[in-house]
């Protein structure tokens, strides 16, 4: 894959700069777990990548208007719309470690934009690998008990040799599910009620 160069560089060396999407580039965001797999699939064929550990998101910079028709579960295309603008926090090029927002794949003027065709293929495969099959229809989030159009399967409860219940959460709660004290306490309570404990 060939990455594209741009006559653009991060705006300063002091702090994160909030920049409008659609002026120099558009962006694609994915949850970190999906991005980890996608980066593995892309290998050296990726452009520069911004990692935001505060919100568990990873961003690729892509050409303007090149991914407007994408529909991949939990992947968002950030682009300028007719009636509103979108902003993205861009760290200085020197921030490659030691900050909560940094260049995970370092920015270089000759490696800025990622090829959208290969990025789409990598993200689609990563979503299948990380999130599993797409459930049919809306599901209730186990944590907030609200319906979600993008359910994430986080576990399958087994009773004997047969699966009995699939647990779904909304994208907001997916990254917290394994460490979710409320969900863990509820699971322990169910185990105690059924007479099973460790």
What does this structure look like?
There is one protein chain. The chain has 198 residues and is α+β, with helices and mostly antiparallel strands. The chain is 22% helix and 26% strand. The chain has helices at residues 32-42, 116-131, 171-174, 181-193, and strands spanning 17-20, 26-31, 49-52, 57-62, 76-78, 87-90, 101-105, 139-140, 147-148, 152-159, 162-169. Strands 5-2-4-3-7 form a 5-stranded antiparallel beta sheet. Strand 10 and strand 11 (162-169) form a beta hairpin. Helix 1 (32-42) crosses helix 2. The longest helix is centred in the middle third of the chain and has 16 residues, at 116-131. The chain is elongated, with a radius of gyration of 20 Å. The termini are far apart.
Tell me the layout of helices and strands.
Layout: E1 17-20, E2 26-31, H1 32-42, E3 49-52, E4 57-62, E5 76-78, E6 87-90, E7 101-105, H2 116-131, E8 139-140, E9 147-148, E10 152-159, E11 162-169, H3 171-174, H4 181-193
Antiparallel strand pairs: 1-6, 2-4, 2-5, 3-4, 3-7, 8-9, 10-11
Largest sheet: 5 strands, antiparallel
Specify the overall morphology.
elongated
Average pLDDT confidence is: 81
What is the oligomeric state here? single chain
Q: Kindly, what is the distance between the CA atoms of the first and last residues, rounded to a whole number of angstroms?
A: 51 Å
Rounded radius of gyration (Å): 20 Å
Strand fraction equals 25-35%
Instruction: Record the strand order, biggest sheet.
Output: 5-2-4-3-7
With helices defined by DSSP (H or I, 4 residues minimum), what is the helix count? Answer: 4
Helix content: 10-25%
Count the strands?
A: 11
- Structural class category: alpha+beta
Poorly predicted runs of 5 or more residues? none
SSE pattern, N- to C-terminal: EEHEEEEEHEEEEHH
């Amino acid at each position: 894959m060939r990455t594209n160069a741009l006559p653009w560089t991060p705006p300063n060396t002091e702090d994160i700069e909030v920049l409008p999407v659609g002026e120099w580039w558009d962006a694609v965001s994915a949850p970190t777990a999906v991005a980890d797999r996608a980066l593995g699939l892309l290998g050296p064929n990726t452009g520069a990548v911004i990692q935001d550990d505060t919100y568990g998101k990873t961003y690729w910079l892509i050409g303007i208007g090149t991914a407007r028709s994408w529909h991949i579960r939990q992947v968002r295309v950030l682009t300028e719309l007719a009636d509103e603008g979108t902003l993205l926090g861009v760290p200085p090029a020197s921030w490659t470690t030691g900050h909560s927002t940094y260049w995970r794949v370092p920015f270089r003027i000759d490696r800025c934009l990622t090829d959208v065709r290969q990025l789409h293929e990598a993200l689609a495969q990563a979503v299948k690998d990380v999130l599993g099959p797409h459930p049919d229809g809306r599901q209730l989030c186990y944590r907030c008990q609200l319906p979600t159009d993008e359910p994430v399967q986080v576990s399958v409860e087994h009773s004997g040799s047969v699966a009995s219940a699939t647990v779904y959460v909304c994208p907001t709660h997916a990254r917290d599910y394994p460490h979710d004290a409320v969900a863990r306490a509820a699971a322990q309570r169910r185990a105690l009620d059924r007479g099973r404990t460790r």
